[in-house]
Amino acid sequence: MHELSSSLTEVALDAAAAGERAIQEAVGTPLEVSTKASPRDLVTAADHAAERAIIAYLREQRPDDAILAEESGEHPGTSPVRWVIDPLDGTTNFVHGRPDFAVAVAAEMDEEYVTGAIRRPAFGDWIAGGEVGIWASEGSPGVSEPRRLDDALISVGISLLPERRATSFALLGELLPAVRDFRRTGSASCDLFAVATGALDAYVTLDVRPWDIGPGWAVARAAGGRCLRIPTVAGRSAFLVGNPTVVDQLLPLVESHDG
Ligand SMILES: [Mg+2]
Question: From ligand 1's centre to the CA of 145, what distance in Å?
Protein backbone atom coordinates (compact mmCIF):
# COMPACT_ATOMS: atom_id res chain seq x y z
CA MET A 1 0.00 0.00 0.00
CA HIS A 2 1.07 3.56 -0.61
CA GLU A 3 0.66 5.65 2.51
CA LEU A 4 -0.52 9.16 1.77
CA SER A 5 0.09 11.32 4.79
CA SER A 6 -1.52 14.43 3.35
CA SER A 7 -5.29 14.39 3.40
CA LEU A 8 -5.66 16.86 0.51
CA THR A 9 -3.35 14.74 -1.64
CA GLU A 10 -5.32 11.63 -0.74
CA VAL A 11 -8.59 13.35 -1.63
CA ALA A 12 -7.11 14.52 -4.96
CA LEU A 13 -5.99 11.00 -5.81
CA ASP A 14 -9.31 9.42 -4.80
CA ALA A 15 -11.26 12.07 -6.69
CA ALA A 16 -9.20 11.30 -9.79
CA ALA A 17 -9.92 7.60 -9.23
CA ALA A 18 -13.66 8.35 -9.31
CA GLY A 19 -13.11 10.08 -12.65
CA GLU A 20 -11.06 7.18 -13.96
CA ARG A 21 -13.82 4.69 -13.12
CA ALA A 22 -16.33 6.85 -15.00
CA ILE A 23 -14.06 6.89 -18.07
CA GLN A 24 -13.62 3.12 -17.93
CA GLU A 25 -17.39 2.68 -17.76
CA ALA A 26 -17.78 4.98 -20.80
CA VAL A 27 -15.33 2.96 -22.92
CA GLY A 28 -17.32 0.85 -25.35
CA THR A 29 -20.30 3.22 -25.36
CA PRO A 30 -20.70 5.91 -28.06
CA LEU A 31 -18.12 8.68 -27.48
CA GLU A 32 -20.56 11.49 -28.41
CA VAL A 33 -17.73 13.77 -29.59
CA SER A 34 -18.44 17.50 -29.87
CA THR A 35 -16.29 20.63 -30.09
CA LYS A 36 -15.81 23.62 -27.77
CA ALA A 37 -13.72 26.79 -28.28
CA SER A 38 -12.23 25.59 -31.58
CA PRO A 39 -12.80 22.69 -33.97
CA ARG A 40 -9.71 21.08 -32.39
CA ASP A 41 -11.04 21.38 -28.83
CA LEU A 42 -12.97 18.14 -28.32
CA VAL A 43 -15.23 16.96 -25.53
CA THR A 44 -16.91 13.57 -25.14
CA ALA A 45 -19.52 11.93 -22.95
CA ALA A 46 -16.60 10.45 -20.99
CA ASP A 47 -15.26 13.93 -20.13
CA HIS A 48 -18.65 14.88 -18.73
CA ALA A 49 -19.17 11.59 -16.89
CA ALA A 50 -15.72 11.80 -15.28
CA GLU A 51 -16.29 15.38 -14.22
CA ARG A 52 -19.64 14.55 -12.63
CA ALA A 53 -18.04 11.68 -10.70
CA ILE A 54 -15.14 13.82 -9.47
CA ILE A 55 -17.42 16.66 -8.36
CA ALA A 56 -19.75 14.23 -6.58
CA TYR A 57 -16.79 12.74 -4.71
CA LEU A 58 -15.41 16.16 -3.73
CA ARG A 59 -18.85 17.41 -2.64
CA GLU A 60 -19.16 14.36 -0.38
CA GLN A 61 -15.63 14.58 1.10
CA ARG A 62 -15.09 18.36 1.13
CA PRO A 63 -18.53 20.03 0.98
CA ASP A 64 -17.25 23.52 1.87
CA ASP A 65 -14.57 23.78 -0.84
CA ALA A 66 -14.95 25.61 -4.15
CA ILE A 67 -14.44 23.81 -7.46
CA LEU A 68 -13.28 24.98 -10.88
CA ALA A 69 -13.99 22.27 -13.43
CA GLU A 70 -13.12 22.37 -17.13
CA GLU A 71 -16.56 21.45 -18.44
CA SER A 72 -18.90 22.99 -15.85
CA GLY A 73 -16.93 25.99 -14.60
CA GLU A 74 -17.07 27.51 -11.14
CA HIS A 75 -18.82 25.86 -8.20
CA PRO A 76 -18.64 28.27 -5.22
CA GLY A 77 -17.48 27.26 -1.75
CA THR A 78 -16.81 28.83 1.64
CA SER A 79 -13.43 27.29 2.61
CA PRO A 80 -9.97 28.54 1.51
CA VAL A 81 -9.57 25.50 -0.79
CA ARG A 82 -10.51 25.44 -4.47
CA TRP A 83 -10.28 22.21 -6.46
CA VAL A 84 -9.21 22.48 -10.08
CA ILE A 85 -10.32 19.59 -12.29
CA ASP A 86 -9.48 18.35 -15.75
CA PRO A 87 -11.68 15.25 -15.97
CA LEU A 88 -10.02 14.04 -19.17
CA ASP A 89 -6.88 15.79 -20.37
CA GLY A 90 -5.90 14.64 -23.84
CA THR A 91 -9.42 14.14 -25.21
CA THR A 92 -8.11 14.13 -28.78
CA ASN A 93 -5.84 11.19 -27.91
CA PHE A 94 -8.76 9.43 -26.22
CA VAL A 95 -10.94 9.88 -29.31
CA HIS A 96 -8.19 8.57 -31.61
CA GLY A 97 -7.44 5.53 -29.46
CA ARG A 98 -4.12 6.83 -28.19
CA PRO A 99 -3.11 6.16 -24.57
CA ASP A 100 -1.85 9.62 -23.54
CA PHE A 101 -4.83 10.92 -21.63
CA ALA A 102 -5.21 11.64 -17.93
CA VAL A 103 -7.56 12.52 -15.11
CA ALA A 104 -6.06 15.47 -13.27
CA VAL A 105 -7.08 17.10 -9.99
CA ALA A 106 -5.37 19.88 -8.01
CA ALA A 107 -6.14 21.74 -4.79
CA GLU A 108 -5.44 25.46 -4.76
CA MET A 109 -5.05 27.71 -1.70
CA ASP A 110 -4.06 31.40 -1.75
CA GLU A 111 -3.60 31.13 -5.54
CA GLU A 112 -1.00 28.36 -5.12
CA TYR A 113 -1.45 24.80 -6.33
CA VAL A 114 -0.73 22.98 -3.07
CA THR A 115 -1.41 19.42 -4.16
CA GLY A 116 -2.22 17.46 -7.28
CA ALA A 117 -2.94 14.00 -8.60
CA ILE A 118 -2.70 12.64 -12.14
CA ARG A 119 -3.99 9.23 -13.20
CA ARG A 120 -3.39 7.74 -16.64
CA PRO A 121 -6.17 5.16 -17.16
CA ALA A 122 -4.66 3.57 -20.28
CA PHE A 123 -1.36 2.96 -18.46
CA GLY A 124 -2.96 2.09 -15.10
CA ASP A 125 -0.58 4.37 -13.22
CA TRP A 126 -0.74 7.53 -11.12
CA ILE A 127 1.35 10.16 -9.40
CA ALA A 128 0.29 12.48 -6.59
CA GLY A 129 2.10 15.04 -4.52
CA GLY A 130 2.00 18.19 -2.49
CA GLU A 131 3.87 20.10 0.16
CA VAL A 132 4.39 17.02 2.34
CA GLY A 133 5.63 14.53 -0.22
CA ILE A 134 5.19 12.66 -3.46
CA TRP A 135 3.81 9.23 -4.22
CA ALA A 136 3.43 7.14 -7.34
CA SER A 137 1.94 3.80 -8.32
CA GLU A 138 5.40 2.55 -9.27
CA GLY A 139 9.04 3.62 -8.96
CA SER A 140 10.49 6.60 -7.10
CA PRO A 141 9.17 9.83 -8.59
CA GLY A 142 11.55 12.73 -9.03
CA VAL A 143 12.65 15.18 -11.69
CA SER A 144 15.71 14.37 -13.82
CA GLU A 145 19.31 14.91 -12.75
CA PRO A 146 20.88 18.35 -13.34
CA ARG A 147 21.90 18.71 -16.95
CA ARG A 148 22.94 21.11 -19.69
CA LEU A 149 20.22 22.52 -21.90
CA ASP A 150 21.67 20.87 -25.00
CA ASP A 151 21.25 17.49 -23.26
CA ALA A 152 17.64 18.23 -22.31
CA LEU A 153 14.45 16.70 -23.68
CA ILE A 154 11.60 19.20 -23.33
CA SER A 155 7.94 19.58 -24.23
CA VAL A 156 6.27 22.75 -25.51
CA GLY A 157 2.52 23.17 -25.21
CA ILE A 158 0.73 23.90 -28.49
CA SER A 159 -2.48 25.95 -28.23
CA LEU A 160 -5.71 24.56 -29.67
CA LEU A 161 -6.86 28.09 -30.59
CA PRO A 162 -6.26 28.92 -34.27
CA GLU A 163 -4.90 32.42 -33.55
CA ARG A 164 -2.46 31.09 -30.93
CA ARG A 165 -1.01 28.08 -32.72
CA ALA A 166 1.53 30.05 -34.73
CA THR A 167 2.85 31.60 -31.51
CA SER A 168 3.20 28.18 -29.88
CA PHE A 169 5.13 26.86 -32.87
CA ALA A 170 7.30 30.01 -32.92
CA LEU A 171 8.28 29.41 -29.28
CA LEU A 172 9.03 25.77 -30.07
CA GLY A 173 11.13 26.90 -33.04
CA GLU A 174 13.13 29.25 -30.82
CA LEU A 175 13.81 26.63 -28.15
CA LEU A 176 14.54 23.68 -30.43
CA PRO A 177 18.10 24.69 -31.44
CA ALA A 178 19.04 25.00 -27.75
CA VAL A 179 17.83 21.58 -26.56
CA ARG A 180 18.45 17.95 -27.51
CA ASP A 181 14.89 17.49 -28.80
CA PHE A 182 11.26 17.78 -27.86
CA ARG A 183 8.45 15.32 -27.24
CA ARG A 184 4.77 16.11 -26.92
CA THR A 185 2.02 13.77 -25.79
CA GLY A 186 -0.87 16.14 -26.56
CA SER A 187 -1.86 16.20 -22.88
CA ALA A 188 -0.32 18.76 -20.52
CA SER A 189 -0.88 16.49 -17.54
CA CYS A 190 0.80 13.55 -19.30
CA ASP A 191 3.77 15.78 -20.19
CA LEU A 192 3.97 16.99 -16.58
CA PHE A 193 3.67 13.39 -15.35
CA ALA A 194 6.80 12.72 -17.44
CA VAL A 195 8.55 15.76 -15.93
CA ALA A 196 7.78 14.49 -12.42
CA THR A 197 9.24 11.06 -13.21
CA GLY A 198 12.34 12.41 -14.97
CA ALA A 199 11.34 11.21 -18.47
CA LEU A 200 11.14 14.82 -19.68
CA ASP A 201 13.39 17.59 -18.38
CA ALA A 202 10.96 20.49 -18.70
CA TYR A 203 7.57 21.60 -19.96
CA VAL A 204 7.03 25.11 -21.33
CA THR A 205 3.74 26.64 -22.39
CA LEU A 206 2.02 29.99 -22.93
CA ASP A 207 -1.34 31.17 -21.56
CA VAL A 208 -2.45 27.82 -20.23
CA ARG A 209 -5.73 27.18 -18.40
CA PRO A 210 -5.71 26.34 -14.67
CA TRP A 211 -6.87 22.74 -15.10
CA ASP A 212 -4.16 22.07 -17.69
CA ILE A 213 -1.28 23.23 -15.51
CA GLY A 214 -2.43 23.01 -11.87
CA PRO A 215 -2.25 19.28 -11.13
CA GLY A 216 1.07 18.79 -12.91
CA TRP A 217 2.51 21.96 -11.37
CA ALA A 218 1.86 20.66 -7.84
CA VAL A 219 3.12 17.17 -8.66
CA ALA A 220 6.29 18.36 -10.42
CA ARG A 221 7.15 20.74 -7.59
CA ALA A 222 6.71 17.91 -5.10
CA ALA A 223 9.07 15.87 -7.31
CA GLY A 224 11.80 18.50 -6.87
CA GLY A 225 10.92 20.61 -9.89
CA ARG A 226 11.05 24.35 -10.34
CA CYS A 227 7.74 25.92 -11.39
CA LEU A 228 7.72 29.47 -12.76
CA ARG A 229 5.06 31.73 -14.21
CA ILE A 230 6.65 34.69 -16.00
CA PRO A 231 5.59 37.49 -18.35
CA THR A 232 7.04 37.39 -21.87
CA VAL A 233 8.10 40.56 -23.70
CA ALA A 234 4.80 40.33 -25.61
CA GLY A 235 2.91 40.55 -22.32
CA ARG A 236 1.73 36.97 -22.20
CA SER A 237 2.18 34.48 -19.37
CA ALA A 238 4.67 31.68 -19.84
CA PHE A 239 4.82 28.64 -17.58
CA LEU A 240 8.04 26.69 -17.07
CA VAL A 241 8.05 23.47 -15.05
CA GLY A 242 10.95 21.06 -14.75
CA ASN A 243 14.37 20.11 -13.58
CA PRO A 244 15.63 23.34 -11.89
CA THR A 245 18.89 23.49 -13.88
CA VAL A 246 17.03 23.14 -17.17
CA VAL A 247 14.32 25.65 -16.20
CA ASP A 248 17.03 28.19 -15.27
CA GLN A 249 18.65 27.80 -18.69
CA LEU A 250 15.31 28.01 -20.54
CA LEU A 251 14.22 31.10 -18.64
CA PRO A 252 16.07 33.81 -20.67
CA LEU A 253 14.96 32.21 -23.94
CA VAL A 254 11.31 32.14 -22.88
CA GLU A 255 11.42 35.63 -21.35
CA SER A 256 12.59 37.11 -24.66
CA HIS A 257 9.90 35.31 -26.69
CA ASP A 258 8.00 38.05 -28.53
CA GLY A 259 4.94 36.07 -29.67
MG1 LIG B 1 -10.11 17.99 -20.45
Answer: 31
